[in-house]
Design a protein that fits this description.
Distance between the termini: 43 Å
Pfam families: DUF2798
Largest sheet: none
Organism: Vibrio comitans NBRC 102076
Structural class: mainly alpha
Radius of gyration: 21 Å
Protein name: DUF2798 domain-containing protein
Low-confidence stretches: none
Keywords: Membrane, Transmembrane, Transmembrane helix
InterPro entries: DUF2798
Number of strands: 0
Number of helices: 6
Shape: globular
Length: about 160
């Protein structure tokens, strides 16, 4: 009588990624996008000095707890709306459209949080001017990052998060 080894079925099944890995993926995207843009904005507002890293970290964390969570929720909403109202448009084109829209929205929010961090609320005229200057100056980087991320990383991260 011959014996055969039986492998447990569970070892052959694909396991979905843990919640920890999913949170880590989102945090990685937040750090890449938010860190790059707030770093540039901090540099544009204050230049490079011994206070740069402190100002940058403060601007990044302010954006990370305010602008970015709202941005991720808004991106999910925009994705659903684009799928619904642009069903005949390719996913790549929808992602580029969403990316450009998100670049403007996120850029505006991060420019505001960085401007508040740089000049405060005391002089609203200076705050508005700093926000606008920061927004316009950093916009090329934000548009480039959002276009690249929307076409390359966003679809992969969405599939990863749905698994």
């Amino acid at each position: 009588m011959s014996t055969t080894a039986v492998l447990p079925v569970t070892s052959l099944e694909a396991k979905s990624p843990s919640l920890f890995l999913k949170v880590l993926a989102v945090m990685g995207m937040m750090t890449l996008m938010g860190g790059s843009i707030t770093g540039l904005m901090t540099y544009l507002n204050q230049g490079y000095s011994e206070l740069f890293f402190d100002q940058w970290i403060r601007a990044f964390f302010t954006a990370a707890v305010t602008v970015m969570p709202l941005g991720f929720a808004f991106m999910a909403l925009l994705t659903k709306l684009a799928e619904r109202f642009l069903p005949n448009t390719s996913e790549k084109k929808r992602n580029v459209l969403i990316g450009m829209t998100m670049a403007m929205v996120m850029e505006s929010g991060m420019a505001l949080s960085t401007a508040v961090n740089s000049v405060g609320f005391a002089d609203t005229s200076k705050l508005v001017n700093t926000w606008l200057d920061t927004l316009v100056s950093a916009l090329p980087l934000a548009l480039l990052l959002m276009a690249v991320v929307s076409v390359t990383l966003k679809p992969r991260v969405e599939r990863f998060l749905k698994s």
